[in-house]
Design brief:
The radius of gyration is 17 Å and the shape is globular. It starts with a helix and ends with a helix. Strands 1-6-7-4-3 form a five-stranded antiparallel beta sheet. The protein is built from six helices and seven strands, in the order αββαββααβαββα. The chain has one domain: Chemotaxis protein chec, CATH 3.40.1550.20. The chain is of the alpha+beta class and about 160 residues long. The longest helix is centred in the middle third of the chain and has 12 residues.
Length: about 160
């Protein structure tokens, strides 16, 4: 990405002031596109593209807003361009990630490879994960109607709430 593009991303998204919360279950359209909820697109600053990568621990796919990803990439850019220790890391991140464009209706097309990875076939559970959006097979998650109070309590304590 050029310096002008990075600057444009930074200007258009500025600072994410809200987190991604809640869950939305959506069907993939016939072209296997997924619509990002308008509130979440607004939180991201209505970007032209998003970063998408498989989760390193769970069988889900993460949508990462440009401002979130760019801050991490900026730290990497401070290192030597041909740092031999960093090369395999960058290759793995690059090969596993995508940058789908967001169309005017808020739809993105995630590759078949990543859809298969997370077992996303017809319906996708989009779950807020505060700094990113996670895409899950709805059958893997607890029902929408349930509340895991104990799990929430543990998570809040770990986050220092």
């Amino acid at each position: 990405m050029s310096k002008e593009s990075r600057q444009s991303v930074a200007e258009s998204t500025s600072v994410v002031t809200s987190g991604f919360v809640g869950r939305y279950d959506y069907a993939l359209d016939p072209k296997k596109r997924l619509t990002i909820p308008s509130l979440w697109r607004s939180i991201m600053g209505n970007p032209e593209f998003v970063y998408v990568m498989p989760d390193p621990k769970d069988r889900c796919v993460n949508i990462i807003p440009p401002v979130e990803m760019e801050s991490r990439l900026e730290e990497i850019r401070k290192k030597a361009l041909f740092d031999p220790a960093l090369r395999p890391v960058l290759q793995k991140i690059g090969a596993s990630s995508e940058m789908p464009s967001v169309d005017v209706q808020g739809r993105i097309r995630i590759s078949d490879k990543l859809l298969q990875f997370a077992n996303l076939k017809t319906t996708v559970a989009m779950q807020g994960a505060v700094r990113m959006i996670q895409l899950w097979d709805p059958d893997v998650l607890p029902p929408v109607e349930s509340v895991d109070q104990a799990g929430l309590g543990e998570a809040l304590a770990m986050a220092g709430f």
